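S.,

As promised, the N-oxalylglycine run. Input:
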Amino acid sequence: MDCSLAWPEPVVRVQSLSESGAHTIPARYIKPLNDRPCPTTMSDSNVSIPVVDLSVDPEHAIQAVASACREWGFFQVVNHGVDPVLMRHARDVWRAFFHEPMEVKQPYANSPKTYEGYGSRLGIEKGALLDWGDYYYLHVRPASLRSQKKWPALPSSLRPTTDEYTQELVKLCRRLMQILSKGLRIKEGRLHEAFGGEEDGACLRVNFYPKCPQPDLTLGLSPHSDPGGMTVLLVDDHVKGLQVRKADAWVTVQPVPDSFIINIADQIEVLSNGVYKSVEHRVMVSSTAERLSMAFFYNPRSDMPLAPIAELITSERPALYQPMTYDEYRLYIRKNGLKGKTQVESLKTVQN
Ligand code: OGA
Ligand code: NI
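Predicted complex:
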């Protein structure tokens, strides 16, 4: 890849723009008319992504999750077994990090080589339009990539809290993988096995969306599907922002306190041979409230080609995707930034 060691132009922290008090946003953040958030979408209606209670009868949960993954690619889970106190603490320490002075954050500035650290853009195209958000990206698994030294040292409880939080989320993801497998009527360990078993991977991206003086002109995160396996998202309990594509509309997710938002990402769409959908989503920003979200990306082992699971290929439904390793796959997003679903579409064996 020609992802050089440096960004194509100086990095501007969105938080600095926000704190400058300017009433207008720089041209780089203004989206073309058709891409701007539209206040008259289904956002005000009662439609929302399904909510699944994981403490109910397991067969019921399996069916509810499977139907959400087929219809929406998204659902919220409640009674998921992760301590809400730990969840709130994780959000609080990361919010405190973003509120540290710039001198504390800048030493962690990231580069497009690994993306690890404090960042403000995705993709390396010079002059590209930018999103209204900063983030912190770190590796959780495999152990060989995990290095707490690359995680912020301040506030001092950030490292132990992030460590505990991410361990809990790995457990939750492995449990969800069993539920997803059963919903496909394959062996309960099958998806996890296809992810490389104990060699499964995980990363965390903490997104920080500062207040924006012109929220109607921009987005916190452009439309994209997540490249990995499955995403477990923890959002602000009260500040909305995430929108999910449903047919031609954008549906705003109504956060349920203490829940997680789960979405299928591209690699599970591929393994399930298109039964479970990796759905496009985007983030709106606000002029009155900043927003923090924690996206935990649960991913397959990265050096092994992934293709539809053999049991899900039939003569009526041949393999819809070509095999590719996750290492190769994620280079696309690292270079091109967020581009809707164009990447997983390019793996399709029959283009439509
Ligand atoms: C992501 C993402 C949504 C949000 O980080 O991939 O889609 O609400 N985040 O911040
Ligand atoms: Ni996403």
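The longest strand covers residues 201-209. The pocket of nickel (II) ion (ligand 2) is lined by residues 224, 226, 231, 281, 295 (CB under 6 Å).

- D.
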